[in-house]
Specification:
flavoprotein, seven-stranded mixed sheet, 19% strand, seven-stranded antiparallel sheet, oxidoreductase, FAD/NAD(P)-binding domain, Glucose Oxidase, domain 3, alpha/beta, globular, FAD/NAD-bd_sf
């Protein structure tokens, strides 16, 4: 039985229930994957589980539960990370938002819900990880969800297409389609069709090329966000064997001084609570689940990582793993914004962004009926190979990557690039993504609050550049240095240029052409290729999809965890979050994180 909203406020643990206590499993991080693990491992009443989360409870908060009430930049629920100045992007410093509090980024994201191509999931297994592939992923993806199917009328009217065979019917997470799609979104989709991107009616089945209206992690019955905290934790919060401590900043994993066959044994987790140091003991395992930006920091503070990073800070090296904090991969994004023609036909979300009084009115309407501007679908999604956008550019790109692979001396990176090249040569595997949003998305030029807008975000989801995240301090309060090395490989810039050129074709193509009054951003001053390069570097956005920083790879290829997610050189320390993905995939990440954590839970239980 699900705990009542009133009870939930009191179901997180006190420091007295955690400090100096011993649990079977201690999970460092109550984000998306961490709460999935906590729920699944505590299904056995004889197993005790402790979760440490630096942020707050945040359950039952309208700012989180109501879709489109974006909290990016709110320090209470957003870590507010930033990159170091980007050497290959004119020293731009980019914000990298991440969820802080129970549920992690599943409480902060845009609720978009999609699965990667089967090629990308199979590639993880091909990199030396038996048991990780599309078929296994689909099994656990279905286990995680209750997918609320549209009615036939909704599917036809709003293009809400999906295949019921690829969905779960009894999982904790609720997902489905929003109440409606706007006319301008559907006309945008028709324009994509006219530019060669066809309708895709089974995008959750491993084939992504095409365009569709994206499902969302929103409970259709309540209109509220469904996320790790209210889907996995809240219904199980009253379990006596599950304790969750909020406001607990993980410092490091502690280890026994006795080694077992040269491997170290984790004994617990040291953390900061109310400014004071504490420790909790682990009888069986410690599981680090801080996300791709926090997990490498926790490992390095624990003395697990590259000695060249750890020793200058005075840290003892318990396990020498140079791969910790490397292989960072991100989905890069750039936004174009278009002002729409004067017409009452265009229903957008701009009004609730620009008009506080109307926003309050629409919020009340949504709370009472589930209708109104807050019910509008996030928008239309499209995935495409570069060949569809520009066949000649695709030929040049393939030749360039082939030459780069021949020159690359790092065998691990060469192997990854070879798989990325294979994907690019496969016309059924996409290289880039477009998101159409019926509202102004912040970019170069400010909006006229009396106008309406349609924005298109272009994403390059298969970058060749690899970045790092490393600590520069032994203080767990200090953020690690995030350096994605954006555009270190010029092929990534060339891809973004092709993406931008395609987006700027939209207002030249019907029916989008009849919708648009003018291009707001990049704007008329952005003409030459050099202008576009400058714009891309200055206004580059993260998609908040970082992966790879604790990669599941063979140890001699800079791996951090094995195919059972156990950290090399340890007997009982695992990492479970997006950081273990060794080669990024072509999709938004939350559906994959839920499935990954479900599979990890069965690995830990010994089921598989």
């Amino acid at each position: 039985m699900e705990a009542s909203p009133q009870a939930i406020l009191y179901l997180t643990a006190s420091i007295e229930a955690i400090a100096a206590q011993e649990f079977d499993y201690v999970i460092a991080g109550g984000e998306t994957a961490g709460l999935v693990l906590a729920a699944r491992l505590s299904e056995d009443p004889s197993v005790t589980v402790c979760v440490l989360e630096a942020g707050g409870n945040n359950l039952n908060e309208p700012e989180i539960l109501i879709p489109h009430r974006m909290n990016l930049g709110n320090p209470r629920v957003d870590w507010g990370f930033k990159t170091v100045p980007q050497l290959y992007a004119d020293n731009t410093v980019a914000p990298w938002s991440r969820g802080k509090g129970l549920g992690g980024s599943s409480a902060l994201n845009m609720c978009l819900y999609q699965r990667p191509p089967s090629f990308d999931l199979d590639a993880i297994g091909r990199l030396g990880n038996p048991g990780w592939n599309w078929d296994r992923f689909l099994e656990y993806a279905k286990k995680s969800e209750t997918f609320q199917l549209p009615t036939p009328e909704e599917a036809e009217k709003y293009h809400f297409y999906t295949n019921p065979e690829h969905h779960g019917t009894s999982g904790p997470l609720r997902a489905g389609f929003r109440s409606s799609s706007t006319e301008c979104s559907l006309l945008f989709q028709k324009t994509l069709n006219n530019l060669g991107i066809e309708m895709q009616k089974d995008h959750m089945g491993g084939k992504l090329c095409g365009t569709w209206v994206d499902p969302a992690t929103i409970d259709k019955e309540t209109g509220s966000r469904s996320y790790a905290a209210n889907a996995y934790y809240a219904p199980n919060a009253s379990r006596e064997n599950l304790k969750v401590l909020i406001g607990a900043l993980v410092h490091k994993v502690t280890f026994s001084s006795i080694r077992l066959n040269e491997d170290v044994q984790a004994t617990g987790v040291a953390f900061i609570y109310d400014g004071k140091p504490f420790e909790v003991k682990a009888r069986k395992e410690v599981i680090v689940s801080g996300g791709a930006l926090k997990s490498p920091q926790i490992l390095e503070l624990s003395g697990v990582g590259d000695p060249e990073i750890l020793k200058p800070l005075g840290l003892d090296v318990h396990v020498e793993l140079p791969g910790v904090g490397t292989n960072l991969q991100e989905h890069n994004a750039i936004v174009t914004a278009f002002e729409l023609t004067e017409s009452d036909r265009w229903v957008t979300r701009d009004a609730v962004q620009f008009n506080p009084d109307l926003a309050a009115e629409q919020l009340a309407l949504y709370r009472s009926t589930g209708e109104g501007l807050y019910s509008i679908s996030r928008g239309v999604i499209a995935f495409s190979p570069l060949k569809t956008l520009n066949p000649k550019a695709a030929e040049h790109m393939i030749a360039s990557i082939e030459a780069k692979i021949r020159e690359q001396k790092d065998p691990a990176l060469r192997e990854q690039w070879a798989l990325q090249l294979e994907a690019m040569k496969d016309n059924d595997v996409p290289d880039c993504e477009f998101i159409g949003s019926p509202n102004y998305v912040p970019t170069a030029h400010p909006p006229n609050i009396k106008k309406k807008y349609f924005s298109v975000s272009g994403l390059h989801n298969r970058a060749l550049s690899r970045g790092t995240i490393h600590i520069t301090s032994t203080n767990p309060v200090d953020h690690a240095d995030i350096d994605p090395r954006s555009f270190e490989q010029d092929e990534d810039m060339v891809m973004m240029l092709e993406i931008m050129k395609f987006m700027r074709k939209l207002p030249e193509t019907e029916p989008f052409k009849s919708m648009v009054a003018k291009e707001l951003s990049p704007g008329p001053e952005c003409v030459t290729e050099q202008d576009m390069r400058t714009y891309i570097k200055k206004y580059l956005k993260s998609s908040w999809h970082t992966a790879g920083t604790c990669s599941m790879l063979p140890r001699d290829k800079n791996g951090v965890v094995d195919n059972r997610l156990k950290v090399y050189g340890t007997t009982n320390l695992r990492v479970v979050d997006l950081s273990v993905i060794p080669l990024h995939f072509m999709a938004h990440t939350q559906a994959t994180v839920y499935a990954l954590a479900e599979q990890a839970a069965d690995i830990i239980k010994g089921v598989i």
